Amino acid sequence: MSHCEQPTPKDKPLRLADAAGHFPGLSVAALRREARKGTLEIYRVANKDWTTLAAIERMFQQCLVPTKAHTFGCVRPEEIPLVASSKTQDGSLKTADDKLALDAALASVKRLKESSRNTSPANTRRRDANALCLKFAWRM
Fold first, then answer.
1. Which H helix or E strand runs over 19?
2. 91 — alpha (psi -120 to 50), left (phi > 0) or beta?
3. What is the mean pLDDT of residues 74-81?
4. pLDDT value, residue 98
5. For 22-75, how does the pLDDT look when each residue is reduced to its tens digit (9 = 90+)?
6. What pLDDT sits at residue 18?
7. What is the pTM of this model?
8. DSSP for 105-130?
9. Under a CB-based contact definition with an 8 Å cutoff, are residues 34 and 59 in contact?
10. Across the strands, what pairs with 49?
11. pLDDT grade, residue 111 (50/70/90)?
12. Left if phi > 0, otherwise alpha if psi is -120 to 50, otherwise beta: which for 38?
């Protein structure tokens, strides 16, 4: 009689190492890190960490990075759907802001250089130092 391996039910608790084995590239350390962040539900029984495949799938959904809409191509601007976002839009606006910031910083440096006086003496040549020899008398 042949013993075939049954698929693991998604709600069956598994040790973290066994659960990570179902997802190539996923390590136990990564699962613990996600649990500390609050994106993975784990159970701690007898000081051993357990989770389910369903919990890992929920974690992946929470960690999903949304794709950005393309802002280039042959589409008319009025045909591009507007996306509400709290982040600034990437592209030429960012470059313009960076250039403004750089110009402001350079202007500040120039103003500070012009207003500061020279603190070095006019003559910075090295002069010959007079060596002073001291004699020590050691007494015991």
1. helix 16-20
2. left
3. 65
4. 77
5. 999 999 999 999 999 999 999 999 999 999 999 999 999 998 888 877 666 666
6. 94
7. 0.45
8. HHHHHHHHHHHSPP-S-S--PPPPPP
9. yes
10. 44
11. confident
12. left
54 — phi, psi (to 5°)?
-65, -40
The identity of residue 27, as a single letter, is: S
Q: Give burial (CB, 10 Å; 0-12/13-18/19+) of 8.
A: middle
Separation of CA 63 from chain center: 15
Mention every residue, 6+ apart, whose C-beta is less than 8 A from residue 57: 10
Q: What is the DSSP string of 41-94?
A: --EEETTEEEE-HHHHHHHHHHTPPPPPPP--SSS-GGGSPP---SSPPPSHHH
